[in-house]
């Protein structure tokens, strides 16, 4: 099964990455995000490090700013879905 990708801020990311960004925009703690994703906090930390590299940011603040400027609202909803 192929992973569906989305163009976000000019970067190709997965739907799972979008979910992580959404949870981050909602200002959830890492343990809360991991619980919602049914993964360990360590796994989430690793996935976030990979996501930072994909979209060329260094931290949560930069990622949230990028998200809000590119289709996410304050509630973590994404409006610009383009699947490839």
What's the total number of strands? Answer: 2
Rg to the nearest angstrom? Answer: 12 Å
Assign the CATH architecture: Orthogonal Bundle
State the shape.
globular
- CATH class categorisation: Mainly Alpha
CATH superfamily: Winged helix-like DNA-binding domain superfamily/Winged helix DNA-binding domain
Compute the number of structural domains: 1
Key features of this structure:
single chain, 84 residues, mainly alpha, Arc Repressor Mutant, subunit A, two-stranded antiparallel sheet, 4 helices, 2 strands, 52% helix, globular
Descriptive overview:
Helices cover 52% and strands 10% of the residues. The protein contains four helices and two strands; from the N terminus they run E-E-H-H-H-H. It has 84 residues and is mainly α. The chain has a two-stranded antiparallel ribbon with strand order 1-2. The two termini are 14 Å apart. The protein has one domain (5-69): Winged helix-like DNA-binding domain superfamily/Winged helix DNA-binding domain (Arc Repressor Mutant, subunit A, Orthogonal Bundle). The model has no long low-confidence stretch (mean pLDDT 91). The chain has helices at residues 15-25, 30-37, 41-55, 60-69; strands spanning 5-8, 11-14.
């Amino acid at each position: 099964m192929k992973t569906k990708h989305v163009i976000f801020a000019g970067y190709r990311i997965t739907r799972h990455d979008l979910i992580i960004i959404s949870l981050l925009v909602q200002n959830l703690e890492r343990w809360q995000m991991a619980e919602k994703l049914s993964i360990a906090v360590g796994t989430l930390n690793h996935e976030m490090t990979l996501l930072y590299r994909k979209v060329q940011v260094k931290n949560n603040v930069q990622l949230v700013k990028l998200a809000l400027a590119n289709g996410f609202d304050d509630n973590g909803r994404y409006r610009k879905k383009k699947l490839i």
